[in-house]
Write a structure and sequence with these properties.
The chain is mainly beta. It is built from 7 helices and 33 strands. Among the domains are: 174 residues, Neuraminidase (6 Propeller); 90 residues, no CATH class.
Length: 528
Amino acid sequence: MRSGYLRKIGICGVLAAAALTMLLSPLDSDAAAVVTTGVVDNNIHDNDYTQYKPVTQCYLCNNGDGTLSRIENFGDIVMVEYFDGAYNVIGHKFLKMELPKFGGCWCGAKYNYVIFGQDNPEKKDDVECIRVVQYNKNWDRVGALSIKNCYTKIPFDECNTDMTEYGDELYIRMGHRTYDDRQAAMTIAMRQSNRSLIQVQANVAPGSGAYGDVVATFIDSSDEKIVTVDHSLNYPRGINASRYDVKAGTGNFVTSVKKAEVMSLSGDLNTYSPFTAVSGLEVSGQYDLLVGRTTPGGANSGSYNVFIAAVPKNNFDTKAVKLAFPTGYAYGDTYTVSAPFIVKVSGEQFVVLWEVYQGAGELERVDYVYVDGSGQMTSQVQTMQGCLSDCQPVVYNGQVVWYTGNGSKMTMYSVPATGGVPYASQQVTTAKVAGSIDYSAVYDFAYYVNRYPDVRVLYQNDPEGALWHFIHCGMPEGRQGSDNFDPQVYYNKNADLRASFGADWTAYYMHFINYGAAEGRRARTEKK
């Protein structure tokens, strides 16, 4: 976590991404890490949270002129740092902290924004709780919108801030604590051309897309409709997507919404449930795409898996939600993942990135996968040596770019915005072979994932992960991996093997692979 800010210059140089040999994640040789001369901070691993997503402190902005801006809150001042295409620092600018609290940053098509706030403990309607400061694209201050009388006691409370724009309207989604001391999501609509307030949605009203006890929230309006995603700890408890009925950019937005419950969580507000976190939202032509992490079966196993949820726009309903899992760590695995990012490359192309840990150790490893507009993976999971931070990656010069600081150096990381090893080749070449052993005599991917619901949920889009599960969990548990081999039949029909192997189920599979099939021993389920 962020432990302070160091005001010193880093070391100049270039680091090539070192090769990392992984069975399931091929190294992408086009990934890179560049140590820059940028001002050093300490934001490394700040994307790793359980459920409460804090306000992001670090941002990158593609300026559209070949340069890149870094915007970061340093507590008492906001720094803008400029980079050229080789990540050399070419300038700085500093923005005044206009109110005591930093609430977030947004780089729009015509203007840039920083949002500030201050607490209102006495719950006075004439206190300026929120100030939205508008800058031009050179980060010169243009003006500000002052927001009062918004039923807010504490702005930016226990939740992140997200922003989006459509036409002349800017939308801000954030957490706040209300006058009646309830945490909730709040939405602000602002007209950019004259910095006027259009509407504030501050009360809890799930029927109109305003949820209470929200620990993470996201908003998008890129397809003429406002869509929000909220992780609520109270009713409806879970990850909830809302699509507003009114068209974006037409004034007042508070109206009825269509709702889809992406993931439901048991318990109530007093139940500690760190098993699921939502961490990103993007929109394609036909789907709203969410990413996050969850534990196998909701159990507190210490191992998280990345999920990608696709909600169809034309059937915005809980039953229509489609889930995919790029990772497949089972209960008790030593590997786990951070909260992932999703990056929109084009209308139908996205990249999802996450960090991988082993136990309590940091592997300095980032995995990523390319997905299409329906949330389906179009490549194998790729691996690079590196880390993530709370900086949302952006597309810049054909690369997906982000930065980290570890207290001694600042590093710019990048991976190709498009590409990856095609996913189909992974299914053909690795679905039945691990190491030097061919498991095809006892294992079939389609059979295994369709027979066992827990395997299907975790590995339906991960053939190598399913094979890993079969080898390390399925065989020891005596699960049937193919129609060709029923371990119970093999056990019952072979007394000599029972005498030798006893309850060592893995031994029966290996015997059939190495000897039994060639000897003609019976292993298929008998038809009645």
